Amino acid sequence: MIGFGPLTVRFLLTGEQSTGSIAAFELTVAAGQRLPAPAHSHDHYEETIYGLAGILTWTVDGRPIAVGPGQALCIPRGAVHRFDNLASEDAK
């Protein structure tokens, strides 16, 4: 596990373990955290988000999308995105 202030990242599967085809990690974001990380995009792959606990608000190409437990979000290649936990409970 790696901690970055209000974030904790636990790698479940790395590119090295999957011949570069997939990476999977669990991200925990503390409640009420507006993150200073800049929006970014990925030109070579999609990103899929699956909510386990709490609610993260993802901003994808300027549009806010709340993702909660049992919900999924696919971020297309090239889409500019970022996230915040605007809720009162930790999100995973």
Written account of the structure:
Strands 1-2-3 form a three-stranded antiparallel sheet, with no helix packed on it. A three-stranded antiparallel sheet has the order 6-5-8, with no helix packed on it. It has strands spanning 2-4, 7-13, 24-29, 47-50, 56-60, 63-67, 72-75, 81-84. By secondary structure, it is mainly β. A hairpin with a 2-residue loop joins strand 1 (2-4) and strand 2 (7-13). The model has no long low-confidence stretch (mean pLDDT 92). It starts with a strand and ends in an 8-residue tail after the last strand. The protein is globular.
How many DSSP-defined strands? 8
What shape does the CA trace take?
Answer: globular
Describe the main β-sheet briefly.
Answer: 3 strands, antiparallel
| Secondary-structure content class | mainly beta
Mean pLDDT, as a whole number? 92
Distance between the termini: 14 Å
List the total number of helices.
Answer: 0
Strand order of the largest sheet: 1-2-3
What is Rg? 13 Å
Uncertain parts: none
Quaternary? single chain
Order of helices and strands: EEEEEEEE
What share of residues is helical? under 10%
- Indicate the proportion of strand residues: 35-45%
Write the layout of secondary structure elements.
Layout: E1 2-4, E2 7-13, E3 24-29, E4 47-50, E5 56-60, E6 63-67, E7 72-75, E8 81-84
Antiparallel strand pairs: 1-2, 2-3, 4-7, 5-6, 5-8
Short description:
With 92 residues, this protein is an all-beta fold.
Annotation keywords:
3-stranded antiparallel sheet, mainly beta, 8 strands
